[in-house]
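Kindly inspect this today.
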Amino acid sequence: MNKVGDLRRNSAEMIDDVEAGDEYVLARNGREVARVVPVAEETRWTHNGEGILEVLKWMSSPDLADLVDEARLAEQSGDL
């Protein structure tokens, strides 16, 4: 983990380092106040477009409608 003394002087280099996987600690008066870390790809949910499409397809399928209808009937008849 790297420490940044002068953020303004090192900002471009720091961003390059973080993009490459490094982490930085930002401190004020010797006290840690923040960390600069790379963004994990899995946290970007929009990158899972295929998975989202699969869920949407399943949600609009007749099978789901049938399951919902069965659950409603079972609930009404007390079979749940």
About this structure: The longest strand covers residues 31-36. The CA atoms of residues 14 and 24 lie 8 Å apart.
